[in-house]
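Hi P.,

Sorry for the delay on this. The queue was packed all week, but I finally got your sequence through. Input first:
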Amino acid sequence: MFNMQKPLAVTQNFVQQDAWATLKQFTNARIAVGRTGHAIPLAENLLFRADHARARDSVYTALDEDRLAEALNAITPHSNILHIKSNASTRQEYLQRPDRGRQLCDASKQLVKETAGQNSYDIAIIVADGLSAHAVQLHAPGVLAEFVQLLNNNSFSMAPLCIVQQARVAISDEIGALLNSKLSIILIGERPGLSSPHSMGIYLTYNPMVGNTDESRNCISNIHPLGGLSYHEAAAQAFSLVKNAFALQLSGVYLKSHKVLGV
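Then the structure:
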C-alpha cells in the first residue's frame, strides 16, 4: 500500500545568488545568472532562449526597402536612391556563401555603372541589410539624418544613395568604385548577439576598389540606443573619420596609426 503523505509546501527560494550580481548594473552581458543546484535557474534559461530566438529572427528578417527608402528620402530629398542586390540570390545562399554577398549581381552592376556615368563624387553612402536587417531599418535613418547634415555643411559631394539586399561589408568597395567615389561608407546590420540582436555597424574605406581587405577599412560598431553607441555619437565619429581620411588620403589601420600619433 502506498504511503500517501501530504506534499510539503515550497516556502524557500532555492536559487543561489551569484557573488558577481552587483556587476550586472554595468553590462548587458550574461553574467551572474545564479544557479539552482548544478543547473541554471529556469527564469534565466527562458531568457536565454528568448534572446537566442531574437538573434535568429534578426538574421532571417528581410529588409523593408520601401519603408527604408521613404525614411531616407526625407533625409536626402534630392538624391536618387538605387535599389540593388548582391550576387546571393536567396538568404540561405547569402549565409552559406559569404563571397557572393561581397559582389553585385550583373543587373545591379549595370544599373550602378549607368547611373554614375562620367560623374565623380567625394562619398558613396550605402545602406545594407547584412546579418541584421532590422538593425538597419531601425537605426540607419537616425544616424544618416545627422551624418548627411555634417557632410552638407562641409560641401562634400554625395553619390546616389544605395540600398543593398543580401550584402556583406566588402560590397561597398565595388559600389564605391563603380560610382567613381573617393570614399565609400556602408551602414550594415551586425552579427546579432544575445544581448544586442539589433546592432548596426559603419565601415569606411578611402579609395574603394575590388580586392581591398579589412585593414583598409575603419569600423564603428555597436550602434543602438539601448546600451550601445547613440546616433549622435556614431554620426560624429563617422564624420571625424571622413575628415581625417580626406586630409591624409587613406583609411584603415594607417589612418588609425596617424590619429594615434597625432598627425
